[in-house]
TrEMBL record:
Keywords from the named record: Glycosidase, Hydrolase
Major enzyme class: hydrolase
InterPro entries, alphabetized: Inosine/uridine_hydrolase_dom, IUNH, Ribo_hydro-like
Gene3D superfamilies registered for this protein in UniProt: Ribonucleoside hydrolase-like
Residue ranges occupied by any Inosine/uridine-preferring nucleoside hydrolase domain in the UniProt entry: 5-285
PANTHER family xref list: INOSINE-URIDINE PREFERRING NUCLEOSIDE HYDROLASE (PTHR12304), NON-SPECIFIC RIBONUCLEOSIDE HYDROLASE RIHC (PTHR12304:SF15)
Primary gene name: rihC
Protein name: Ribonucleoside hydrolase RihC
Family matches, as Pfam families: IU_nuc_hydro
Enzyme Commission number: 3.2.-.-
GO BP annotation list: purine nucleoside catabolic process
Any one of the GO CC terms: cytosol
Source organism per UniProt: Staphylococcus petrasii
MF terms (GO), sorted A to Z: purine nucleosidase activity
NCBIfam families given in the database record: PRK10768.1
Length: 302
């Protein structure tokens, strides 16, 4: 039976890969896509989600969410993902009529309370929308199976020495989510940094189908890494992990978000020696099976 999921995202090149696999694979039933300010502003992340919806001829609703963090100043990663957030592929023009009018927090709540079974939340960007959901509708937690998020790090960051981008963008929201009491799996920088998608591997699938060609083209514009060596596709591991969790090392931990430190704000403070864990932390892979799982899922796309 397909796993019902809600994707909360800020597309984003690696977001696009995760969304593509989830929309196309029969193991997932995407109930909605919620957008948030993150890699680029929320208007652009929403347009990018709509472009992907159109590319796949999907009937999954896209709902626009938070345009800014709870308290933080707005940050951007357009220097990594390009001005549009998904540079490198010419998607057809999208009509604003494709966008639903309901705010994503309201839409998430409505879907959750009316679902036949608890739903898994896949968080690919800053956690603003999910924090707003919990603050506005605390009863919504009852209808959530678990949260799988890309964010954080057990060590070094990628925005500051200790803070990862998604958490750094809205530390207060992350604090709310990590202390929500829900089953939570953190897939942070540690995993993608040692599970590289090599240039040779990416080149091998570029002509597999229309989706692989689209992804290959936007991957070439991913400016965090040297494309000629390989890419760290952070967000896609949320989906790959759900497909093949046995191939990953997971440790229980208490994860708290630093909110005050002038040098450490947004850091994920990970304590593996706690008696009171609030999170499962995916630290590494046991093998390179993630490549084959990626290929298998990609082959299910158009």
């Amino acid at each position: 039976m397909a796993l019902p999921i809600i994707i909360d995202t800020d597309p984003g090149i690696d977001d696009a890969a995760a969304i593509s696999l989830a929309l196309c694979h029969p193991n997932f039933n995407v109930k909605m896509i919620s957008t948030v300010n993150g890699n680029v502003d929320v208007e652009k992340t929403t347009m990018n989600a709509l472009k992907l919806k159109s590319f796949f001829d999907s009937d999954v609703a896209v709902h626009k969410g938070a345009a800014k963090p709870l308290l933080n100043e707005i940050n951007s990663a357009s220097h990594v993902h390009g001005e549009s957030g998904m540079d490198g592929y010419e998607f057809p023009d999208i009509s604003s009529e494709e966008l639903t009018s309901t705010h994503s927090v309201e839409a998430m709540y409505n879907i959750l309370v009316n679902a036949e079974e608890p739903i898994t939340l896949i968080a690919l960007g800053p956690l603003t929308n999910i924090a707003l959901l919990f603050n506005t509708y605390p009863e919504s937690k009852t209808y959530i199976k678990e949260i799988i998020l890309m964010g954080g790090s057990t060590g070094r960051g990628n925005v500051t020495p200790l803070a990862e981008f998604n958490i750094y963008c809205d530390p207060e929201a992350a604090h709310i989510v990590f202390n929500s009491g829900l089953p939570l799996t953190m897939i942070g920088l540690d995993l993608a940094r040692q599970a590289l998608f090599t240039h040779e591997f990416i080149t091998s699938f570029k002509k597999m189908n229309q989706t692989s060609a689209m992804l290959y083209n936007i991957f070439q514009h991913y400016r965090e890494d040297d494309f000629e060596i390989g890419l760290k596709l952070y967000d896609v591991f949320t989906i790959l992990y759900l497909m093949d969790s046995k191939s990953y090392e997971v440790k229980e931990a208490d994860v708290q978000i630093e909110l005050q430190g002038s040098l450490t704000r947004g850091a994920t403070v990970v304590n593996f020696k706690t008696d009171y864990p609030n999170c499962s932390v995916v630290t590494s892979t046991f093998n390179k099976n993630y490549e084959q799982v990626f290929l298998n899922m990609l082959s299910a796309c158009k």
